[in-house]
Fold these 3 entries.
Entry 1:
Amino acid sequence: MTEPIYLTLAFHNHQPVGQFSYVTEHSTHVSYLPLIEALEHHPKVRVALHYSGALLEWLKHNQREMLERLRALVAAGQVELLSGGYYEPILAIIPDEDKIGQIEKLNDELETLFGVTPSGMWLTERIWEPHLAKPIAQAALRYVILDDAHFEAVGFESSREMFGYYITEEQGYALAVFPSLRYLRYAIPWQPVESVLEWLREQAQQPLQGQPPRLLLMADNGEKFGTYAGAYEYCWGEGRYMEDLFTALEMNAEWLKTITPRQYLARFPPLGRAYLPATSYMEMGVWSLLTEDGQRLGELRQRLERERRADQLRFLRGGMWRNFLVKYDEVNLLHKRVLMVSRKVHAMRRGRKRDRALERLWAAQCNDAYWHGLTGGVYLFNLRVANYANLIAAEDAAESDEPELRLQTFDLDHDGHDDIVLLGTPLTAVWSPVHGGGMVELDFRPAAYNLYNVMTRRKESYHARLRQAAAEGTIILPTSPTPLESEPPYSRAVRAKEAGLEYRLIYDWHRRCAFLDHFLSASTTLEEFYRAQYAEQGSFVNQPYEIVEAVCDGMRAYVTLQRIGSVWIGEVLHPISIRKTFQFFHSESAFKVHYTLSNHSKQPLELHFGIETVVGFDGGQDIANSALRLNGESERLPLSAIRELEGVTHYSADTVLHNLTLLTALSRPAFLWQFPLETVTLSEEGFERGYQGTVFLHLWHFQLEPNERWEVTLTQSVSQTATHL
């Protein structure tokens, strides 16, 4: 006789801070609402649901009826609601007081909206580190759901040791850990319901050997069931997958019983102890590796899958999540700035102002802008903008209304080299002297906006697939005979939203930021510079600068950086120095940068010298959102164009979306080179191009005699105005 077994289905529903409302609305109609309706039609099917705080806030304003229907399901005992970090942070990388605070905030929200006290939680991207057991337990939760990969990494057998839960602890704080089974995650909803049922029946027929009744748990993203390309029709439309699945579960309830994790935890004992390593699901381990290693590991995994070597696949883990802080300088900077602001906010006197600052701080910790994979989003401009907006607002709230200027020199990004941070109003600035003396962040506090929020163009492991498909002529486009909608979900086909993306795979050899110093040859073209395929003649762009001066009296701040380097003139290397002094003044939304170049050679040098700056306005690829204006003229030019201009003395870049203008004025007329930073990324819908900011190179051609100096001043000012079409 088949022994009864228990099945838990857990659905994680999340939309990031800064998500476009129409995207959330779409997911609601094709994923979240259909699941609620299916549960109403199948009252004997019990599930666990998780909604992140940011999604709950949207639903409260836009889908009150859906929340009322969900409340009825919860009251009936059909749905267990999971807690977690309110704004879906990577718990492992934020301070413990923020870990606990975010969980308690979602606990309180679930109590307010649904009248329940949660027992367990969804862990963001299942990114586990052993120390998490303590703060999770301190937040009054009893369990967390992880992947079976966590257990396999320390020797647990997926075929016989994953059917229940275990107890782990940290410093005596105990926590139950449930494994989510890979087979169920991959099979539901892509394998036929009959195949899934047959597999479940096979598990039920295995002898218990004195263990508690088997629990088979699947936990996965709710968006997989409707939002992913092709999934809605397959799951809820003509495919009827979820209807067939829930019907089958009810028809087989005699031996297959759905249950929530809290119910199982209350009725049955654990399988034993487990101490799990710092890891996540397999794909995250691949994504976190540097490009070449990630590509090799992906190929190895595919080969072992073809050879059906499950005995070896279980030990493939890849890197750990924290490697994203190594892989992307932009992610690391955001993270370290959040840590910096967290200390300020927690030092505030308790009260409403501190509570508001905590809200903005926690929103800045939303995970999606801190990594990149198939669904992650450091390349999604709107998510970076949202995280920085909340970070800047939290920092502003943590300081006095009219803070004096303050300069801090310390290793902000933890790379072993000092950085410089200017704090005050209305501008905040961050320099990385080791990265060419560049300015990597410029915040305008009144608008809570980082004007230098751009991304360096990097090689990603999946780019090889695009190149290969382009060479073979097998890319599926929206205009192809086989449209995107007809491709099955998770198809291996290479899809792209537009033709020619393989020609846009451009990789920078240095970090993109402002006030980087270039020496070009006379033959270098704008196209070569744009494609980062030119010969840099100087030793300055990605080389360290010395901090000569960093002084501040509260009303004025001066930062002077210098490098004594060299420049190639023909085949001869000549010594030359660059000294740049940044001047900021209290309450002024403008600053000056004074450059001095000195020729230490014994010969005159004919130079092509350029100063690179950037601007990061989301939506800048659309002239309706952002524009460039030259020398005070009224004509609006696109920020996303590649162009060369002559005799430029001042120009402005603006954003209608944020009502901001960044004006740059030059003390000497210059050639101006402009080009967009565009990346090619992969999502569920295929390869796509993304705008990440605009680069400006201010270029001068001059001769510098021995021991002679050449000087220029750049002034940048920010105003809350913008032009419109």
Note: The mean pLDDT is 94.
Entry 2:
Amino acid sequence: MLHTGWSLRISITGMDLNRVFKKKWSSETMRNRLRHYSISRNLTIGLFLAFGCVAGVTLYASLRFSSHQARVALQKKTDEYITSLADILAVPLWHFNEKVIEAIGQSYVQNDFIVAIRIESVVGDWDFRKDDPKSQTAFLRTGTICYQGETLGEVTIFPTTRYYAILNRRFFWSYTVTLVLMIVILSLVSGGLFRQLLQKPFMQFIDLVNAYVSGDQSAFSRHGTYIELEPLVAALKQMGDTISAQMRSLQRAEQKYRGIFDNTVAGIFQITPEGKFISANPALAGILGYDSPEELMKCIDDVQQQLYVDRRQGDEFIKLLEQEKHVEAFEVRLHRKDGSMMWGLLHARLVYDDRGNVQHYEGFLQDIAVRKQAEMEIQHLKEQLQAENIYLREEIKLEHNFDEIIGQSRMLKSLLSKVEQVAPTDTTVLISGETGTGKELIARALHHTGPRKDRPLVKVNCAALPAHLIESELFGHEKGAFTGATVRRIGRFEFAQEGTIFLDEIGELPLELQARLLRVIHEGEFQRVGSSRTLTCDVRVIAATNRNLKEEVRHRRFRQDLFYRLSVYPLAMPPLRDRAEDIPLLVQAFVQKFSKRLGKQIETIPQTAMNALQQYSWPGNVRELENVIERAVIISPDNTLRIELPQEQVLAADTGKTLQEVEREYILHVLQSRGWRVSGPKGAAVVLGLNEATLRSRMQKLAIYRPKAGKSPL
């Protein structure tokens, strides 16, 4: 390119024109030919060749310059990716979310620009490489990962050489095309300009030659002429500089933003104060379930109304943004295109115009569905652990009847032998027997000697719960499932996961729940009340009842299929009256227990008292015996046990009455002595050693009614 200040000077001083032109220049024909000969074509060709030489030199410089520019652009683009990746990795590294770190690394390494990524941090190192053997890299760039002013590590990106080659070709052809156009334009324009500027001096040169040949020496008073080209050169240079500057500016802007905008895994956006998208990148469209940014911007006219699940959350975000000017890590729930809900993390800042008014706000959105799912699972496990701790604390507070099973009778040994056989399995067991015989104790023995002993044993008394609460107690409920359900509750089957559930008084379970219980036992599936989500459980079921379930099935008060599913391995608890030889051992154990608790020293148990205890029918079984011994320890003034049995201690064989009649009379007597009070510390249930619900069931079975209530059982 011609530089400003260059000029073409044509001088004829000191030339020997006689030797050059000789006599033929004197002919008129030659003079006319020279005068009318057009120099424009030859001059244009000459200038074109001259500019071509300059172009060759410039072309070589362009190759070197385009190579340098391509390397600089590659380094800038790599630095932009490093900055973006470092910002995105900061939060996962701070919280050490390895899954998110791997997901981000895999996402970035799939980019055509990147061959490999290396992350070195205080919590660990990761290497990600593209599975393409043809991918090569020319150099690497390293950046620092910081979060809240603390350095967490470094990230290194290895860019591909293919992108360098593309940039090199792009710069080369850009400069080459510009150069060729300028050469053509300069050649054409300069030919015309030079024709106008040099026509007169050149013709004067011809006249001088002719004057010299003719001998007219006066024409040589002037020694030369000058043609200045500065205006043309300055105009062309200014035009070329302007074009080059604009192209470089556009290339820098495109290189700076396009790579980050299109290839980052975070959803970048610009939104007007009215809630309309100005721009969005493909990642944002993908996060929200749209096929392209254009579709997203076309479908969403108001972000506040159409995207936020809870508009109050959107209002809070805008208010916070206006107050703080920028917001980081704001959790939101947004609607996707298909109607589903997603969790996102918003980062945004306000952008102002020249007059200080809010022009728009811009930022990026991160999909944190994986993190929220993990948090929900952790919260669920935390709630379950808290519930299990509460339940276990309640279980610890319970007063167990025995520290171990006591007895040496043949019937008890046979029962324990069966327990030993079935305990190591997961078989469902049905324990039947009268109230107070120790069914729960056998259930605990089955659990603690089985493979699930390290998991909880959860007890549910089906008779102690109102019918409308049994379902919620067993299977749990969701918040708002019914009136009073202010929080979500985990059911007993979830508490007993991988453990054992003991369903006491299973005969009291309402018919409508028996089908659901059958499904849980048979398929291991259930649903919380108020939820359509099916949950699975791995639980061993042990059931107990004081009813004759075969009779209940025959009277259609108990499902036959459930009965057969429960009684895979039935165990029958013998009543205390059928194993009287175990009574002395039980009495001795109870005396030691209550003596220690009450601070007394009972050393002697009269044989007469022991005989009386062995002859009594014990309708309340072991529980009633325990109550009698506790009362005896309390009323004994010295170290000799004083026994006071109920007045109805005469055996049924001596009165000619059946056991059911004796039991009915005894319960009726106790109720009358307690003023027909069933519950409470002075109620008949405490005296009989029975659960309140069990006593009411017995009263209904034995047709015991309050006199004033007619046919209404208590």
Note: The longest helix spans residues 40-95.
Entry 3:
Amino acid sequence: MKFKNSVIFFFIITALPYSLKGQNQAVIDSLKNTLEGAGPSEKIDTYNQLAWEYRKSFPDSTVIFSQKAIEIASESVELNEKVVKSLNFKGVGHFYGGENIIAFDYYQQAKDSALIYGDSLQYGYSLNNIGRLYFNQGNYVAAYDNFFKALEIFKGIGDDVSISYGYKSLAELYQSQDNLQKALEMSLKTAEIRQSFDDPSGIISIYLEIADIYGQMENYNNSLKYFTEAYEVAAKINDEANLAIIKLSIASMNAKRGQLKIALTNANEALGFASQAKNVNLIIQIYSLLGEIHFYRNEYDQARNYFLKVNDLASNNDVTFERDAYLYLSKIFEKQANVQEAFDYFKMYSVLKEKTENVNAAREIERLEGRLLLEAKEKENNLLKQNEDTYKQVIQKQKAFNIALTATILLAFILLVIIWITANRRRKHNKILQLKNNKIQDQQEKITLQNKEIKGQNDELLIRNKELDDLNNEKDSLLSLVAHDMKAPFHRITGLTELLRLSGLREEQNQYVSMIRNNAKHGAYLINDLLDVNSMATEKEELKSERIELKQLLENTASNFVIELTNKQIECKIECEPNLLVRTDLNYVNRILENLVSNAIKFSYLESEVILRAGVNKNNFWISVKDFGPGFTEEDKNNLFKKFKKLTAKPTGGESSNGLGLAIVKTLMDRLEGKIDLQTELGKYSEFTLYFPFLEE
């Protein structure tokens, strides 16, 4: 069964008058209340909002309120830029009032003013509004051009409200051209943006539009999905008019698909909502649909009753529904064999059909005339703009010539002044330069005399330096001679004390002998350190590369200090992996370690530890010596490697310290091109870490 319903759901959504939700009375009342005591700027905004609310139901009020906003904005230079929005709204009022040419003039004024005041948003709305005028007049190419330009401006600004408005305009244009896929794409983008707004009516509107497009594409599942989503939003705000529209649209879709029973249920639900909303236009459409459903269900009496109701209500409203009702009544009486009634209703149908065709023809003529007038108006505006641009160019050229001439004269005058000032300054500078030259000559003569004096002093210094070098060499020779001569007596004293100790002395005598022996050893150590320092200062030994095993090196060093470690009950720990082979100067490394380990033992507390560690890195190898003694102060760190410098830390067992050990370590490390790192904490520990480069064979 083919359902010949003239009120398909596309017609329902697009043909319903805006008066369904034409204005929000609560919003209007709130806006009017804000006018009392408001300043000029607030009044302009309020009048603009009132104009927007009245646009669909009372467009004359839109024109009045927007004109009031224009008048206030024109009274103050600071508020002039607000006139752009008011001009757009006044054009909207004339547009909804059917005065397209006047609306076009105000849209053009708004567009020009937007350029003057740099209002990109209102410039975009002006283009979109002009596009809607062209769209209504059937000039789809011009409409698309204006819609597209407006959308690009909205995107550039990043205003979501205006972007959704631009997408919706393009969706309506594509839909009118049966490009349903592009219309759907634009509508889905609009819905995605509007979902983030607190605007239920706007969301319902776009959901219905998407459902309509899916319906035209015969994708009824998706169509029903969006009808359902629109219904849920409308139910939350108890929007009875939109609830009726949604149910009526679903009923039309089901009727078109031949599901008359479901369609009948949907239509009765729609009638309930429309009756609560007291919306006559909706009730007429629902009665018409119910009549058609009963007709195709062969329920002619019920169908006749609904079409008679349509005629009762539509006589003062939409002639289209009254005309279609007459046609169906004619068919019903024909099926009931009542030829006379069928003929009478068909005659009434024919009369209304001719009347609607004449009205449509008149509207088409009016639309075409309006389109021609719009095109003529646009051409006139373009011609005026071209002439204005030409005049502006001539004026600009004349201005440019006058400016250039004035600038030339001014530059010539400035140039003459600069030349005079420059010449005057040059004369003064020449005098100053002459005086400076005279001073420079005097200074050069003085410098020459001073250079001669300096040369004489330098010659005298060279002689004195030579004498100091000779004295220093004599000092080194004397020091070496004295140290060598004193070394043997100290060794003999040490040997004699050893013999005395073995000769069976009393305990008191043994103590005196031990004191003599220790002092002799300390003297011998001092002599050795002095000889080392002296030899290092006077001559540099050539480095000898040898392969050594690090763990064995640490063990040998520790074995040299067994007596000292035992005397202070110190444990020497060695932490090193076996078989780590490196190449270096063994003599230098031994002397460095002996000095560091000796110091570590001297400055370690009784019954503590000395830790020797070693390892190999990619570019070097390292050895560390850690003791748990008094540590070093910040002042100690500054004097650490200086000769004969006494530090705050003292040996813990009464040992002597001459201040040469670390100076020797630093000198030897510099010769090996190594690096010394010290980690210490006062009163707890000190750890010297030595980094040695690998020597070549």
Note: The chain is about 75% helix and 5% strand.
